[in-house]
Design goal:
The structure is a single chain. The protein has about 90 residues and is mainly alpha-helical. It has one domain. It is about 65% helix and about 5% strand. It has 3 helices and 2 strands; from the N terminus they run E-E-H-H-H. The chain has a two-stranded antiparallel ribbon with strand order 1-2. It is elongated and about 50 Å long. It starts with a strand and ends with a helix.
């Protein structure tokens, strides 16, 4: 059962644990993915959680960059934004 992730990073003053509960169907799916990728299920879940944290940090940094630009008065016109979106959708 996938039930404990423990952070014992050097320099951390505390060791903490987290329990995550999955349904039996979810555990079976995770086991299948882990077997297919040649890893164990705990590593699969840990790596997925770490990727989520990295993506969240990247997203928040992008939002902050936009907020900082808006605070400086750096805006683009609606037509330019429409053109950028059109280019992104065509790629």
């Amino acid at each position: 059962m996938l039930d404990r992730l423990v952070d014992t990073s050097p320099g951390d003053r505390y060791i903490w644990g987290m329990e995550v509960h999955f349904t039996s169907e979810q555990e079976a799916r995770l086991s299948q993915i882990a077997n297919h990728t040649g890893t164990d299920t705990e590593d699969l879940v840990r790596n997925a959680a770490l990727r989520l944290l990295e993506e969240d940090a990247h997203f928040r940094a992008g939002v902050q960059k936009g907020l900082d630009a808006a605070a400086r008065g750096d805006f683009i016109e609606e037509e330019e934004m429409d053109a950028r979106i059109d280019r992104m959708l065509q790629s």
